[in-house]
Design a protein that fits this description.
alpha/beta, Rossmann fold, 5-stranded mixed β-sheet, 6 helices, 44% helix
Length: 184
């Protein structure tokens, strides 16, 4: 059953590849005005408090690690986001519980889900990133589907996650009508 599902998934991706190669990513086609309209709820976010990565399926079997990927995304957040603070609320369970209980719209969250099916070629993966607040955790969502081998997929997945974080940072700033200002 797993092989049939994987074959169907790869066939579906290949049939869409010709269409995808002639179109750019929809998020990159949005005007600044459209970004502000679609992601305007980001204006309420004063700081971020949670970056989370969860692995599903065979992700760990191909060498992916939740803690390492979470640290990678923490680092990527700090290098791509500006004008906004990040305090890891998982380090203070009381603050995390309060933000969840209050459904705090001023504290942003970023979650990644990496789903891998298979442990060697061909394996398929799906990477999803949701960003929002404790009140609305999916203001922004992007997903990527891919395939590879246990040698190539881990690096590809890390690059996809990094690119999704860069796209999120760009759209976050546009939605807030802000420009990046780094402190020296």
């Amino acid at each position: 059953m797993k092989v049939i599902w994987l074959a169907a998934l790869l066939f579906f991706q290949l049939t869409l590849a010709a269409t995808a190669s002639t179109h750019t990513h929809p998020a990159s086609e949005l005007t600044d005005e459209e970004v502000r309209l679609f992601y305007g709820l980001f204006k309420d976010v004063k700081r971020f408090g949670l970056i989370s990565v969860s692995l599903v399926g065979d992700a760990q079997k191909i060498g992916l690690n939740e803690l390492e990927l979470t640290q990678l995304m923490d680092d990527k957040f700090r290098s791509t986001f500006c004008n906004i603070e990040y305090e890891d609320l998982t380090q203070t369970p009381e603050k995390l519980a309060a933000a969840i209980g209050k459904r705090d719209r001023q504290i942003g969250i970023i979650t990644f889900r990496v789903w891998v099916m298979g442990t060697d070629y061909p394996l398929a993966y799906h990477v999803r990133c949701d960003a929002g607040s404790f009140e609305n955790p999916a203001i922004w969502t992007e997903e990527v589907l891919g395939h590879g081998s246990n040698r190539t997929a881990p690096a590809a997945i890390k690059e996809i996650m990094s690119e999704l974080m860069r796209q999120l940072a760009t759209n976050f700033l546009k939605a807030r009508s802000e420009k990046c200002q780094r402190e020296s």
